[in-house]
């Protein structure tokens, strides 16, 4: 630890140590250990605005044995190991803030086994969700978690990712049944089984899911699959108020309707897609529903939900079971990211991601909306409202320090309001770098110190994704 | 550790240490710290056949602060703390095998908050599931996990319990959203939030769920609630073969039918309830279904399932949505435990509990059945087959050492077959004492050593439920 106290000498000694680890690994990985400038630059950033940092090298292991060799070499010389999926993190998870080896899992992309009768697939961590779903097509099953990006399943597990379908099928927490990992101390951990439930042993699976690569490298995952529904139908519905829309969602879930997706877009977001995609949607708080089931059951679900929406000021409930019509209805939601970017071409989106108890969702969204209205920004709110999770997007000018400062203060207020009402600082984007400051506020000293004790137990040299969750905050 | 090497002197020094801790705790707990013989005897055993062991004292804390005082006093003097719910464990979890303080949570039985809109309840650990469901009745919501016994929610969480409804609503793993706990090192840990999802921090909630009281004492739980379904219907169906019954279950789930319960009983079990409850059920492998939903949807589910059962040799599909008729249909299943005990009055049931991937369930049950048929015992198999979880019950003579030896060997073979096909040594009854020997076989050295490292990190003095999972195996 002493060598880190002086930033500059740490960098120097860090580079020397990395060079030693690279020497050990060259014969193991050959050309799959890259030190060229451009490949290091590719692995210096993710999809966030956060400051990039170069790794000393990028490794592309193909097997667990190679991951183990990397971890052992880096442990020997105190070199950071930073797992990298496809770099679609929004929070800087894969930025190697202290250099070291960026461990890219893209060559660990084999689907090892699909067992339709057991509703499971066993995959290497670099398999992407679309790759798995393409392979699953013939089985009538699907991997349900959909964060938008075609992320790797290892990355989604490490960040406890979710997305639009979580309200029905759960997040990565619910869909990873078992895994293998190499911990920072070089132990190879196998956790969970292929049985649907078990009451044996500490739940190491859920410890690695969401650990953001700070305990070890996930080398294999057993994920849960779900039947592709026989019928899918969709509906959109405009509301007079945000509160009405959210209360309709609560009533729908209370009724026991297992909506497959229920997404919210506010007026700004609707206006943006109207302009971008030439749609004529009513500019109002809007809900997008998707129902899965048998043909009769999806029709019944939609009918019940239509009645509910009417009670809460919903109008123009537009329902369809036809695929093309469904796609048209959902187009606005799908186009939302680019539509928002198109409001001010060339400007950046400053994204927020919180989750609150659903009873607090209406007031939370209203407060977030007011904060945007009182700011110099155009901004929108969209959300996976069935879970109480929503995203803010402020449109800021690149390089404008004043904008950044205001946006940061707004993002802090957003999180503070969420925590004050029993919510969480990150619904699905994770802690990464900037949200480290909220860890003690959200979890308290006892929990954060316990996390650090667990980190030390499994990664005693602190080589796994250092400077992130587990050894800061 | 040295003092434990000599069994006798450890007992003596254990009693002295316990006396010191008791002295510290007397002014804190007053009469809620009991050392009488009869109360200690009550806390020396559970519902298993395992050898009882007396605690040195029994504490009945009412608050987290009192739990903390107990843990601190015991840590100071190296005295075991063994959490106790209602003592309904089947595997010896709450037996204080090394003496110490039995920490009974029955006075921590306050339902702290019910938030219907958020589908959550916040409870102290000594609240029982029936107590919570009685309180919930007016809200239209229910706590779904049903292990049979009216267990405490803290105990169910600690053992990662489940039961008949897990196939639809999940186990305790899925239904504990957040908790508070006092770890063995005296830190107070708050984990999770009231939001439905979160991607912040290591998942300490799932670390304590299933830890069997070996990391700390759970002092508060936030559990998930589900809407009481508008309509409930039931069906029973007899099959020509075990394989046919199990394949019908797989097909039902593959079809996406969200059965609320699906229970299997073999011929011996059916015969026993026919005799015990004067029923006239066909003596055959039988499935019991329960469907939840709207009236139209439960009718449709039953119709689809009836078609499926026919394909797999099912006959006499007997369906009803009427409450009395439903209860009559399920009576056989509810009476099963007592019906089996009544086969040989005064004899004991030696219970097994494994879970396998559903694709292996038919062959697993057939092998278990053959093992029983080749033994001197009458024995039966019943199961939560939607999860791949089933229980064997061998009827053995109390005190008959030969019986016990044969039963133990059969139970070992049952687990070995489960592990060989990717299953787990315990589906829902936990590890407790006798299944410790399977920990390394199931999880491997890397995982078990990681568990022990975590145990040392959170309970450095090893006072939490010692001799169980986490410091043995």
Notes on the structure:
The structure is a homodimer of 473-residue chains. In chain A, the strands form four sheets. In chain A, strands 12, 13, 14, 15, 16, 17, 18 and 19 form an eight-stranded antiparallel β-sheet that branches. A five-stranded antiparallel β-sheet of chain A has the order 5-6-10-8-9. Helix content of chain A is 40%, strand content 20%. In chain A, a hairpin with a 4-residue loop joins strand 18 and strand 19. The two termini of chain A are 17 Å apart. By secondary structure, chain A is an alpha+beta fold.
Largest sheet of chain A: 8 strands, antiparallel
Based on the coordinates given, report the CATH architecture of the largest domain in chain A: 2-Layer Sandwich
Mean pLDDT of chain A: 94
Which class best fits the helix and strand makeup of chain A?
Answer: alpha+beta
**What fraction strand of chain A?**
15-25%
> How would you describe the oligomerization state of the chains in this entry?
homodimer
* Whole-angstrom Rg of chain A: 23 Å
* Share of helical residues of chain A: 25-40%
Note the total helix count of chain A. Answer: 16
Number of domains of chain A: 2
Unreliable stretches of chain A: 1-8
Q: Per CATH, what is the topology of the largest domain in chain A?
A: Uridine Diphospho-n-acetylenolpyruvylglucosamine Reductase, domain 3
What best-fitting shape of chain A do the alpha-carbon axes yield?
globular
Task: Kindly report the greatest chain-chain contact and the residue count on each side.
Answer: A-B, 96 and 95 residues
Number of strands of chain A: 19
């Amino acid at each position: 630890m002493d060598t880190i106290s002086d930033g500059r000498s740490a960098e120097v000694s860090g580079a020397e140590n990395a060079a030693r680890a690279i020497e050990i690994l060259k014969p193991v990985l050959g050309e799959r250990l890259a030190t060229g400038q451009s490949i290091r630059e590719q692995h210096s950033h993710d999809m966030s605005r956060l400051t990039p940092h170069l790794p000393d090298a990028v490794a592309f292991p193909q097997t667990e044995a190679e991951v183990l060799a990397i971890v052992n070499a880096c442990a020997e010389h105190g070199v950071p190991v930073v797992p990298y999926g496809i770099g679609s993190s929004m929070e800087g998870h894969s930025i190697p803030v202290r250099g070291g080896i960026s461990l890219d899992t893209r060559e660990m992309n084999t689907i090892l086994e699909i067992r339709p009768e057991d509703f499971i697939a066993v995959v290497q961590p670099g398999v992407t969700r679309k790759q798995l779903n393409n392979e699953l097509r013939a089985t009538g099953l699907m991997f349900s978690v959909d964060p938008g990006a075609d992320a790797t399943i290892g990355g989604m597990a490490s960040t406890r990712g979710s997305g639009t379908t979580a309200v029905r099928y759960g997040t990565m927490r619910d869909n990873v049944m078992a895994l293998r990992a190499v911990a920072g101390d070089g132990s190879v951990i196998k956790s969970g089984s292929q049985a649907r439930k078990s009451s044996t042993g500490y739940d190491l699976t859920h410890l690695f899911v969401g650990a953001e690569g700070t305990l070890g490298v996930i080398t294999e995952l057993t994920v849960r699959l779900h039947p592709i529904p026989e019928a899918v139908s969709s509906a959109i519905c405009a509301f007079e108020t945000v509160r009405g829309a959210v209360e309709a969602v609560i009533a729908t879930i209370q009724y026991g309707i297992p909506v497959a997706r229920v997404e919210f877009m506010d007026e700004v977001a609707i206006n943006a897609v109207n302009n971008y995609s030439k749609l004529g949607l009513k500019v109002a708080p809007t809900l997008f529903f998707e129902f899965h089931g048998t043909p009769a059951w999806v029709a019944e679900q939609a009918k019940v939900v239509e009645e509910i929406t009417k009670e809460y000021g919903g109008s123009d409930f537009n329902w369809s079971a036809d695929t093309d019509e469904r796609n048209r209805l959902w187009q606005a939601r799908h186009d939302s990211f680019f539509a928002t970017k198109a409001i001010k071409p060339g400007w950046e989106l400053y994204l927020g991601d919180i989750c609150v108890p659903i009873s607090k969702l209406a007031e939370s969204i209203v407060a977030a909306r007011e904060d945007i209205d009182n700011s110099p920004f155009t901004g929108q709110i969209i959300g996976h409202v069935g879970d109480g999770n929503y995203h803010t997007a402020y449109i800021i000018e690149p390089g404008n320090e004043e904008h950044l400062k205001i946006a940061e203060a707004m993002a802090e207020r957003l999180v503070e309001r969420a925590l004050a009402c029993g919510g969480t600082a990150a619904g699905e984007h994770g802690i990464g770098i900037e949200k480290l400051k909220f860890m003690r506020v959200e979890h308290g000293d006892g929990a954060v110190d316990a996390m650090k004790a667990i980190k030390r137990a499994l990664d005693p040299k602190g080589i796994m994704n250092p400077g992130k969750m587990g050894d800061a905050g």
